[in-house]
Structures are given as structure tokens and as C-alpha cells.
Amino acid sequence: MTALARLDHTAVYASDRRRSAEFLADVLGLTVGAPFGPFLPVDLGNGVTLDYYEKRDEPIQSQHYAFLVPEEEFDSMIARLEARGVTYYADPSHTEPARINHLFGGRGAYFPDPDDHNMEILTRPYVRP
């Protein structure tokens, strides 16, 4: 089957777009791009950007973003979270602090960003039925 659609970008609401974009870029070992209109992009390196959009007039609703990362980079990402004093969790409900999971033979962790979006890093994609 040929893919009919590919995600190109998505907007991520943030109370401070620079703070949030720099936080994620730092954790993932990426860079923040140049502003594009009201957006501040983080290029994920696979043709997809997260375009941070500042929204100050109402509360930010927490969303979930999952990132498939190289196994050899996972420990560095966890170390960057620890250096920032950010607690990571083995589960999406954040009940298992300072632990990782081993789903599908890989490693994974969840962590909050500055606006409490539930971010996830995983080294193996989920096995879908």
C-alpha cells in the first residue's frame, strides 16, 4: 500500500514559544529554527517540524507528543532531563518517577515540557495489531 499522506508539521501551543522550543530541542539534541511568521520551528530531521505557537490569552491544553529516537542517543536524552531537574517517568500517567519502560524490546520515558505537554521518547515503535 502506498502512503497517501505524510505529516509535515504540527503546531504546539506554548505560553512562551522560545522557552518551550529550546527545552525540547535541548532534550532531543536538536536546534531551534528561525521564526516563521508566528511560529518557532523545531526540525525533527525527518521532514516534520513542530511549530511552536505562543498562546497567552488562555490556558494551554496538555497534548501528547511521542518521538522515536536512536537507541544510542536515549541515555544522553535522559541525562539532559536530569541535568535540567526534569523528572521522567516510565508511564504516561507519571506514576513511576525516575524509571524508564522497556516496551516492545526498546526503552522509553515520559516527561513534561514547560507547558505540561506529555512528551515521550522511545527507541522502538509500538507494535500495532
UniProtKB/TrEMBL annotation:
The lineage of its organism: Bacteria, Bacillati, Actinomycetota, Actinomycetes, Kitasatosporales. It comes from the Bacteria. This is Bleomycin resistance protein. Residues 6-124 form the VOC domain. InterPro entries: Glyas_Bleomycin-R_OHBP_Dase, Glyas_Fos-R_dOase_dom, VOC_core. CDD domains: ChaP_like. It holds the Pfam family Glyoxalase. It comes from Streptomyces antibioticus.
